[in-house]
Write a sequence for this structure.
């Protein structure tokens, strides 16, 4: 297939995944900030939402203060924030138009109807919490619908695999970022260990990656930082864990390699990351430092993006 | 202006045979049902994303072309005549182009004056002596046809460059069949859905000699911001070919390749929807980023077929248009089946005198203009405009042609106040391959939705209709 088509499919999946992640982040932050002050401590949750979205620097060029109104606006509706939900949806639609021939009609319909539906939201914004919640739900549902229609209707060929590559790369990046920003609350030596503050912070992390229920199923335990990190980093039964993302990335790249009859640096690099994840345990990671571990992972992950681009997309 | 020819009603109250069943159906169908279907059609168009961009409006402006649910109907007999005329016309266009870029018999015979060719900016000297496969220049033609009476078909314009609109012909039919299955059950409508297949065979049949047995065809688009982008992606999809942009192609050793995830892949035929001017910055406009540097050398080396060929603009130029009946006679030795609109060439003193005396009744067009710019519509213009135009015309008569204002035929159309006659034209699409010329029965009917308006152009309030040819 055309390199440009593959590139568009790859980014299309990334944008949709990112929009969903942003919606989840806002949703989770709204929940935590709705708690009485004694439950959430002194940290500014909106500030940390900006950090997990990786847009704190550009935000402060435009705003003085990270409060609900400003951050929700910046992450959801801002036209000047290149990774706002709005711009993700716009970019996803533009990408879809460029590769319409490679999309199934169900996928196109999902993106195009969402885009049409959201035009009104862009022009009016959301004036109440209820409207905001509805909007955030709609974005998440759009991502689910898109993902589902890709899964159910696409031919299993390179088009599908490149789209999945984008999805899993973006997902791994998102999970790693939220862990990185919140890693301090996972550290047991913090002063208010086990207090109500930690509980809500931890559940907020899990909520951002839709893993709260999964946690209870997997561990049958109260929320423990150690286990949360284990779930999100190493547990390959959780679709948003780093291990699971890399299981998928390696598989998709292998499928491409087999179809094209050729392996390359992308396959090798992805396998390297997966092997490291497979051979790690939480003990080592905490010894080594969660922050350092995740920083390394984020760099490795974005390096994979560059290698894939060079090998296939240009 | 004469009274327009009504395609459904015969003066005196009778119906033309092709419309009898439709008229019965309209009588049985409550107006609300029609309105409901109209809204449903609009929703479908928007969801499928059948939109076009209007240049000069705010970014990301995408508009729907209004769709009228009342079909335009022609009998099989009428179509048979039109089809014959179209094939004749396109054959002549191809022979004319072959001649202009080679022997130039027609110039020596003084049927067409030299300066109209050589001083014409759409004449491409790069094409002189260039061999094109099977001598086909115009693979896809969109001939604009109007009717003013029951007998004649008149050519308004020969679009021989990159005619668009065929996706509307196909989508209109799809949507009509979804919305009005009962109406189709009551008619025998000739299908149009084989157009993509016929286009693909035509394109494959003109592959260059060095191409493999299964030539690779690609559609070259200017990109998502082009007003006809939907059509480009639609056709690429239906043909099962890659939709490429200039940056996807690269020339190596005078061969054309596309960049794929598996490396470079050779392309043999390009169905290009990029104009001559932009197709190769090394040959034509150097500022073009839509084209492929070096494409013209690959073309000259005979390694790639461009459809349509470069330089076809000289055949559909307004200055050449008035010579078309003579061109048909010259190459084919036949009387033209399709009529031309009578045209006064202002470059000829006798014609100029007539035009200057009758400016108030004529349409005067710039020879090199398009899209309705620089045009005078006499009956609709103010005195001052006419006088200003008179001066312009006197200064540079060779830049203009003039035609009478035609009373385009009308068809029943949904309006705010119920069904009413509106003016229509028709663009059938003529495909020419190495051996055959084919036309899918019908074409794109455009309708001027404003009462009395003769402008069917989509950027100026025109809409479209499904076009039915009855298989009798």
């Amino acid at each position: 297939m055309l390199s440009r088509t593959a590139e568009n499919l790859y980014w299309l999946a990334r944008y949709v995944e990112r929009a969903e992640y942003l919606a989840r982040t806002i949703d989770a932050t709204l929940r935590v900030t709705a708690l009485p002050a004694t439950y959430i401590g002194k940290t500014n949750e909106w500030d940390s939402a900006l950090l997990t979205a990786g847009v704190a620097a550009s935000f402060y060029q435009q705003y003085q203060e990270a409060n609900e109104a400003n951050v929700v606006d910046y992450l959801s509706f801002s036209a000047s924030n290149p990774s706002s939900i709005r711009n993700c949806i716009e970019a996803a639609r533009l990408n879809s138009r460029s590769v319409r021939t490679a999309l199934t009609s169900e996928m196109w319909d999902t993106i195009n109807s969402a885009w049409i539906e959201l035009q009104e939201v862009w022009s009016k914004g959301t004036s109440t919490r209820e409207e905001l919640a509805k909007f955030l739900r709609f974005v998440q549902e759009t991502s689910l619908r898109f993902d589902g229609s890709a899964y159910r209707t696409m031919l299993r060929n390179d088009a599908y695999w490149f789209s999945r590559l984008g999805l899993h790369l973006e997902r791994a990046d998102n999970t790693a970022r939220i862990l990185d920003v919140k890693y301090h609350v996972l550290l047991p030596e913090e002063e208010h260990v086990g207090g109500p503050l930690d509980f809500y912070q931890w559940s907020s992390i899990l909520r951002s990656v839709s893993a709260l229920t999964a946690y209870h199923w997997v561990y049958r335990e109260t929320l423990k930082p150690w286990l949360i990190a284990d779930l999100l980093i190493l547990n390959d039964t959780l679709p948003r864990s780093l291990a699971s993302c890399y299981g998928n990335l390696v598989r998709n790249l292998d499928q491409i390699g087999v179809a094209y009859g050729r392996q390359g640096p992308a396959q090798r690099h992805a396998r390297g990351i997966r092997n490291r994840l497979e051979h790690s345990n939480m003990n080592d990671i905490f010894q080594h430092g969660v922050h350092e571990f995740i920083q390394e992972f984020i760099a490795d992950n974005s390096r994979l993006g560059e290698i894939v681009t060079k090998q296939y997309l240009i | 202006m004469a009274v327009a020819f009504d395609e459904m009603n015969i003066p005196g109250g009778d119906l033309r045979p092709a419309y009898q069943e439709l008229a019965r159906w309209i009588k049985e169908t409550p107006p609300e049902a029609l309105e409901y279907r109209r809204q449903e059609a609009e929703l479908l168009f928007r969801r499928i994303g059948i939109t076009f961009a209007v240049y000069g409006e705010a970014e990301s402006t995408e508009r729907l072309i209004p769709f009228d649910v009342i079909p335009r109907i022609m009998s099989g007999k009428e179509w048979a005549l039109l089809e014959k005329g179209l094939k004749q016309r396109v054959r002549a266009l191809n022979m004319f182009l072959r001649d202009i870029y080679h022997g130039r018999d027609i110039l020596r015979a003084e049927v067409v004056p030299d300066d109209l060719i050589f001083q014409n900016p759409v004449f491409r000297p790069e094409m002189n002596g260039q061999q094109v496969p099977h001598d086909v220049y115009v693979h896809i033609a969109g001939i604009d046809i109007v009717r003013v009476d029951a007998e004649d078909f008149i050519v308004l314009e020969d679009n021989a460059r990159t005619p668009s609109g065929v996706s509307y012909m196909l989508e209109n039919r799809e949507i009509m069949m979804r919305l009005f299955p009962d109406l189709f059950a009551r008619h025998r409508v000739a299908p149009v859905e084989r157009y993509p297949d016929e286009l693909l065979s035509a394109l494959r049949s003109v592959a260059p000699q060095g191409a493999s047995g299964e030539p690779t065809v690609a559609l070259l688009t200017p990109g998502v911001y082009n007003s006809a982008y939907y059509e480009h992606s639609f056709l690429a999809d239906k043909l099962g070919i890659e939709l490429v942009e200039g940056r996807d192609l690269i020339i190596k050793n005078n061969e054309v390749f596309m960049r794929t995830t598996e490396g470079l892949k050779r392309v043999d035929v390009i169905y290009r929807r990029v104009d001559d001017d932009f197709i190769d910055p090394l040959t034509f406009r150097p500022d073009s980023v839509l084209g492929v540097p070096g494409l013209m050398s690959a073309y000259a080396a005979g390694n790639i077929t461009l459809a349509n060929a470069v330089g076809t603009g000289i055949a559909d130029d307004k200055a050449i248009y008035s010579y078309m009946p003579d061109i048909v006679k010259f190459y084919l030795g036949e009387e033209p089946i399709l009529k031309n609109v009578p045209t006064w060439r202002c470059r000829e003193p006798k014609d100029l005198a007539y035009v200057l005396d009758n400016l108030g009744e004529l349409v005067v067009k710039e020879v090199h203009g398009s899209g309705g710019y620089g045009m005078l519509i006499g009956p609709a213009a103010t005195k001052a405009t006419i006088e200003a135009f008179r001066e312009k015309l006197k200064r540079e008569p060779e830049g203009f042609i003039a035609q009478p204002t035609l009373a385009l035929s009308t068809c029943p159309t949904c309006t705010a106040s119920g069904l009413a006659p509106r003016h229509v034209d028709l663009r059938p699409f003529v495909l020419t391959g190495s051996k055959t010329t084919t036309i899918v029965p019908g074409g794109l009917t455009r309708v001027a939705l404003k009462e009395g308006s003769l402008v069917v152009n989509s950027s100026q309030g025109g809409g479209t209709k499904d076009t039915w040819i009855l298989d009798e």
Remarks:
- Chain A has 16 helices and no strands.
- Confidence is low (pLDDT under 50) at residues 190-194 of chain A.
- The interface with chain B takes residues 1-6, 90, 94, 97-98, 100-101, 108-109, 112-113, 116, 158, 162, 256, 260, 312-314 of chain A (CB under 8 Å).
